[in-house]
């Protein structure tokens, strides 16, 4: 049996974003936070649980997993199968919308709760070898935190070596599962992280369900088509930019050539004037003042 790819956002949300699998989500989040040196969560509330209304082809369907802790902290988990580019700006934009949406008219700023964004990327983005990077708002020199309300995680799956089977529990077991580790490794991953068993069972169930596979195929095709269109647009933009750059370069070159020609023509004219003055037996000093040529340049003309 071919398993569905858990990196496809539709499948990811079925595994981690349904009410029946809140315990799976909680265990996954705690593996992320514990690795980052933070206090584990005790409870999680799904803000947009998966339902049958989540149509893979409907642009209104949201396949992120939104959750809230018992203390009110908001968490947004997004799976990115393909590079949509500008991920850092998109992250800040959607983080800011989520943060600002907490306040209604008349509410006070202290009521704002921390917002955490977790991006799981199926491509490399940051220029280091860490598969898990965490960003906060801190002062450059001293490292003093301005406020703890912003927290962004990047989990980059390509930086994992799936051939290395971990010998202990932790986040890497979850990420290897998401990356599509060979099912022969599942037993070890499950022993390291017992909560993975339910995630694996869910994936196997979905892979056998004809309706789920039909929706999966539709979503996968949609994502591939979207990625192809984006890549084509990028290539077309680069080509147009290069062509425009070449045109501008040619214009500048012609302009520079024209200016160079004028300058050379002026120099030739000045030399001819100087030669005529020499033929009139004017002294070199006088010719230099009149033409701007140095006395040496005039002496060379005389020769």
What topology emerges from the helices and strands here?
Elements (H helix, E strand, L loop, with lengths): L8 H8 L5 H14 L8 E3 L18 E5 L4 E7 L6 H14 L14 E7 L10 E7 L6 E12 L14 H9 L6 H7 L3 H13 L1 H70 L4 H8 L3 H8 L1
Parallel strand pairs: 3-4, 4-6
Antiparallel strand pairs: 1-2, 2-3, 5-6
Give an overview of the whole structure:
With 303 residues, the protein is of the alpha/beta class. The chain has a domain at 9-208. 50% of the residues lie in helices and 14% in strands. It has helices at residues 9-16, 22-35, 87-100, 171-179, 186-192, 196-208, 210-279, 284-291, 295-302; strands at 44-46, 65-69, 74-80, 115-121, 132-138, 145-156. Strands 1-2-3-4-6-5 form a six-stranded mixed beta sheet, sandwiched between helices. Helix 7 (210-279) packs antiparallel against helix 8. The longest helix is centred in the C-terminal third of the chain and has 70 residues, at 210-279. The relative contact order is 0.11.
């Amino acid at each position: 049996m071919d398993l569905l790819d858990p990196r496809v956002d539709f499948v990811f949300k079925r595994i981690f974003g349904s009410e029946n699998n809140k315990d799976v989500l909680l265990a996954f989040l705690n593996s992320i936070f514990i690795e980052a040196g933070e206090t584990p969560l005790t409870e999680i509330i799904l803000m947009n649980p998966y339902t049958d209304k989540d149509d893979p082809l409907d642009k209104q369907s949201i396949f992120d997993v939104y959750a809230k802790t018992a203390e009110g902290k908001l968490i947004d988990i997004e799976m990115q199968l393909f590079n949509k580019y500008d991920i850092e700006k998109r992250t800040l934009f959607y983080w800011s919308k989520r943060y600002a949406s907490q306040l209604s008219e008349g509410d006070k700023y202290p009521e704002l709760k921390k917002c955490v964004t977790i991006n799981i990327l199926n491509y490399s983005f940051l220029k280091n070898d860490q598969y898990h990077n965490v960003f906060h708002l801190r002062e450059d020199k001293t490292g003093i935190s301005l406020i703890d309300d912003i927290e962004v995680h990047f989990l980059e799956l390509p930086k994992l070596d799936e051939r290395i089977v971990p010998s202990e529990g932790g986040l890497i077991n979850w990420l290897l599962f998401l990356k599509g580790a060979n099912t022969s490794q599942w037993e070890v991953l499950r022993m390291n992280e017992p909560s993975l068993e339910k995630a694996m069972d869910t994936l196997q169930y979905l892979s056998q369900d004809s309706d789920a596979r039909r929706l999966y195929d539709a979503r996968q095709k949609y994502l591939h088509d979207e990625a192809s269109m984006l890549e084509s647009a990028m290539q077309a933009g680069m080509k147009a930019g290069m062509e425009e750059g070449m045109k501008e370069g040619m214009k500048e070159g012609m302009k520079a050539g024209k200016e160079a020609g004028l300058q050379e023509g002026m120099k030739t004219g000045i030399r001819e004037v100087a030669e005529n003055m020499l033929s009139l037996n004017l002294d070199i000093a006088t010719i230099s003042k009149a033409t701007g040529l140095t006395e040496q340049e005039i002496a060379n003309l005389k020769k």
